[in-house]
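Dear H.,

Thanks for agreeing to be a second pair of eyes. The structure we're designing against is below in token form, covering all 553 positions.
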């Protein structure tokens, strides 16, 4: 790892979604980086879990996407307001009148870190690799709007039939299955970034397993990365061959995985870290710290129950109701998290999307609720026991091994065992990557998962619970729900109001039947150095963008 600098903390908050908790701080939005020339341009950031994968086709977690968003670049990037702006594209996409064809020109000066030019063929290869069933990408579904993507993923068509072609070295033609209003936002997401075919083939099954086994085209180069799920230190180094390198001021971003909040806090106070996440008591104790920042996120934390086995007790709707009514969500966010998170009222978070006609928040139109009521919880528990023919029930709750996850698991275990007589919850805390692997393979009974919005549309959350979604890990099934999602994605794709109503009704079904049990809408409490300027933190997608960041005395 590189030398650790001693910079203390804060953020220029860009965009209305970001809330500063301290009112007395000077928050002038300075963008002049001339003062940065004499200052060491190094920042040290702490994550609470490992990066799951450095492979664009295989990445699924936020830490991977943050890293990939800075080491690679796609056709578009998100600006401070989550609006897509051109990046690897040389000009705005030309879109056909029917909304089905996108023609995009690439920057001819863009290079890979191995010296190759970034070409249209790199995008074709990357997208085809992701939808190829042999790749087994859990994010292949993100490419579903592209013509034939779904048929390729299910093995019906060859990957060469995907609706993307290289017209020439620096021009792409993309054909969609149906008009997709948020398609430009998708192009800013790492799953849609290019990959260098020559490099992928050179390293084979070792591709992207270390930072040396890949090529990068973004503002930074991934370095010091030794492997997915295990490495707890890696870095981003400025890419001298990036087409816009002159605008990149940071030389290095060092990442450390620190799962214990107290350890992270001590490192920050001693000047060894510049950006840390606080939770629980430490978050509550530091509300008045001059560097304290609450960073809202379009993220829902939820419980997923494995309903795949025919004898799964979680197929019982009364059991799911009993568990949900046992959750005091207000107590969770106030007494356990203390970091600005909000009690969940449904699966789709607030401040994500708004009614195309009235501009009302999606959660207002859905008007769903998730109540805490011990008496109702016990009533549903008695009904569930009678229907299941049991007096007692025991199951495993799988969570990550971070501080916050452990505390949440302790709360869930305690409240369920106290409220529902005869219920036993066995908690298993595992590394983040292990939780992901076990979730994806269906090796769980109940698991605590979260979803961070990839783009600002309710469908990004709601489509997770469709019958055929790879993220419907618990295998909840509801035909009416699936039909509504299908209508929103197809026949009503060009009718904003009808599509909105489809999604509202789907949310109501999901919430009433509790296909998953939402707990809270996440926020992060940070201590962040006031010397860090220009950082954009998105509420959706690959949240951190370090391209415009610089350090100032």
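And this is the sequence the design step returned. I haven't edited it by hand at all.
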């Amino acid at each position: 790892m590189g030398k650790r600098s001693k910079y203390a903390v804060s953020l220029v908050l860009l965009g209305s979604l970001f809330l500063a908790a301290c009112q007395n701080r000077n928050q002038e939005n300075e963008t002049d980086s001339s003062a940065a020339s004499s200052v060491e341009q190094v920042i040290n950031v702490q994550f609470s879990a490992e990066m799951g994968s450095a492979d664009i086709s295989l990445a699924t977690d936020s830490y991977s996407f943050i890293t990939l968003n800075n080491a690679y670049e796609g056709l578009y990037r998100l600006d401070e307001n989550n609006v897509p702006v051109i990046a690897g594209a040389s000009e705005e996409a030309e879109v056909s009148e029917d909304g089905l064809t996108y023609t995009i020109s690439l920057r001819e000066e863009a290079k890979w870190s191995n010296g190759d030019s970034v070409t249209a063929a790199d995008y074709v290869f990357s997208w085809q690799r992701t939808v190829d069933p042999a790749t087994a990408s859990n994010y292949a579904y993100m490419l579903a709007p592209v013509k034939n993507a779904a048929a390729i993923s299910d093995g019906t068509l060859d990957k060469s039939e995907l609706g993307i072609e290289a017209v020439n070295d620096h021009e792409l033609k993309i054909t969609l299955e149906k008009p997709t209003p948020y398609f430009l936002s998708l192009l800013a997401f790492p799953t849609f970034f290019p990959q260098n075919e020559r490099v992928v083939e050179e390293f084979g099954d070792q591709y992207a397993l270390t930072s040396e086994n890949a090529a990068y085209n973004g503002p930074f180069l991934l370095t010091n990365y030794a492997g997915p799920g295990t490495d707890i230190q890696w870095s981003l180094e400025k890419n001298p061959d990036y087409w816009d390198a002159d605008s990149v001021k940071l030389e290095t971003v060092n990442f450390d995985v620190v799962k214990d909040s107290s350890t992270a806090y001590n490192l920050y106070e001693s000047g060894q870290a510049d950006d840390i996440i606080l939770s629980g008591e430490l978050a509550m104790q530091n509300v008045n710290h001059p560097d304290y920042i609450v960073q809202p996120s379009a993220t829902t934390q939820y419980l997923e129950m494995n309903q795949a086995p025919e004898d799964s007790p979680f197929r019982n709707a009364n059991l799911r109701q009993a568990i949900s009514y046992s959750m005091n969500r207000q107590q969770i966010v106030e007494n356990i998290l203390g970091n600005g998170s909000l009690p969940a009222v449904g699966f789709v978070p607030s401040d994500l999307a708004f009614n195309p006609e009235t501009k009302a928040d999606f959660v207002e139109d859905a008007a769903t609720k998730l109540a805490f009521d011990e008496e109702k919880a016990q009533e549903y528990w008695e009904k569930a026991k009678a229907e299941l023919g049991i007096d007692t029930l025991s199951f495993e709750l799988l969570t990550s091994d971070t501080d916050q996850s452990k505390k949440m698991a302790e709360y869930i275990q305690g409240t369920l065992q106290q409220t529902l007589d005869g219920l036993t919850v066995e908690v298993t805390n595992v590394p983040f990557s292990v939780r992901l692997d076990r979730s994806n393979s269906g090796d769980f009974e109940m698991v605590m998962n979260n979803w961070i919005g990839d783009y600002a549309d309710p469908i990004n959350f709601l489509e997770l619970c469709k019958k055929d979604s790879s993220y419907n890990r618990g295998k909840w099934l509801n035909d009416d729900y699936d039909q509504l999602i299908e209508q929103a994605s197809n026949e009503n794709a060009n009718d904003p109001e009808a599509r909105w109503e489809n999604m509202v009704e789907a949310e109501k079904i999901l919430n009433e039947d509790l296909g998953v049990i939402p707990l809270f809408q996440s926020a992060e409490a940070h201590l962040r150095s006031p010397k860090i300027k220009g950082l954009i933190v998105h509420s959706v997608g690959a949240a951190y963008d370090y391209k415009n960041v610089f350090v100032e005395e």
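Two observations from my side: DSSP finds 16 helices and 22 strands in the chain. The first strand starts at residue 19 and ends at 20.

Warmly,
E.
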